[in-house]
Amino acid sequence: MHIEPFVYERPTNLREFEQALARHGDDAKILAGGTDLMVLVKEKVLSPRVLVDVNAVTELDWIRWDPEEGLSIGAGTRVAAIETSPLVQEHAPALAFAAAQLGSSQVRHMATMAGNVCHASPSAETPPVLLAHDARLTLGREGAERTLPISEFFLAYRKTALQTGEYLKAFRLPPLPPRAAVAYRFRGLRRAMEIDMVNVACYLELADDGSAKAVRIAMGAVGPIPYRAVAAEQALVGRPVDDAFFADAGRLAADEANPIDDIRASAAYRKRMVDVLTRRALRAAWDQIQGKEG
Questions:
Q1: 8 A C-beta contact, residue 88 and residue 82
Q2: Read out DSSP for 187-236?
Q3: Which residue among 5, 16, 76, 161 is buried most deeply as judged by most CB within 10 Å?
Q4: Strands 50-53 and 7-9, how do they pair?
Q5: Which residues contact 14 (CB under 8 A, 6 or more apart)?
Q6: H/E segment holding residue 7
């Protein structure tokens, strides 16, 4: 194996990190866990001229809860910390569950959720949950920040809205209303360390009369990017949450899926799994709401 020479920088604080990104521009790639990046480098998909190691920048490693703002997570936080955090388990249990499905324990102790998101793989575990939560991303650059809904972050296969010198700084998940929940379901070829064939995360919020006040259905591995089944969501709002609701939700979501045939699954099978997983995720979300009220 031969890797092209590159410059390695290890800033020790956020200011140095931002300066390094500004200085090197498009030549720079951020090294956090390296669990995705170094695979691409070894396979010669990427040949970065500069690697900026963010692991010493402790300002990016945190998890916080605020009743008004919701759950916030710094981009440098390890996936294992998200998986085991009491705050995440309490306020975004679907995210903790999705994090637990990412690779092996060793990978989760190295990888960051920011890396999982910025890699922009359509089959990544955490983006559908973040889409279902309607998460907002803080994007930073030297001396500035901007906020972007995660629904606008993925532009194409492995292409994101990050601009030159910009980086993903933090995630914010708004607090869930009392009668709302998010659930995540996936399908893989085996039980561990497998790229998902399909994954689905669903948000369900109930109105006072028990009907669906809001629905979000996010899908992965059924298109070039993770995305929401917006037409299905709109068709389900206002309906009673009964067996017909769950059946139609699965069918409508599958209609919006646009998968391909590959080594892991056929397009037809993936569409069928979108139907099944959407129904299961929405039922799980409904069960969570009933459990909170019971």
A1: yes
A2: E-SSSSS---SEEEEEEEEE-TTSBEEEEEEEEESSSSS-EE-HHHHHHH
A3: 76
A4: parallel
A5: 57, 59, 60
A6: strand 7-9
Task: Check if the beta carbon of residue 154 is closer than 8 Å to that of residue 252.
Answer: no
Residue 288 burial (CB count, 10 A): 18
Residue 132 · residue 209 · CB < 8 Å: no
Contact (Cβ atoms closer than 8 angstroms) between residue 51 and residue 7: yes
Place of tokens 């010669």: 44
Q: How far apart are CA 79 and CA 124, in angstroms?
A: 13
Give me the residues of the chain with pLDDT under 70, please.
Answer: 1-3, 43, 190-194, 294
> Mind listing the domains of the chain with CATH numbers?
7-53 (3.30.43.10), 180-293 (3.30.390.50)
Per-residue confidence (pLDDT) for residue 294, from 0 to 100: 65
Q: Tell me, what DSSP letter sits at residue 177?
A: P
CA atoms of 294 and 185, how far apart (whole Å): 24
pLDDT at 275: 98
The CA distance from 209 to 109, in Å, is: 44
Cα–Cα distance between 25 and 165 in angstroms, integer? 5
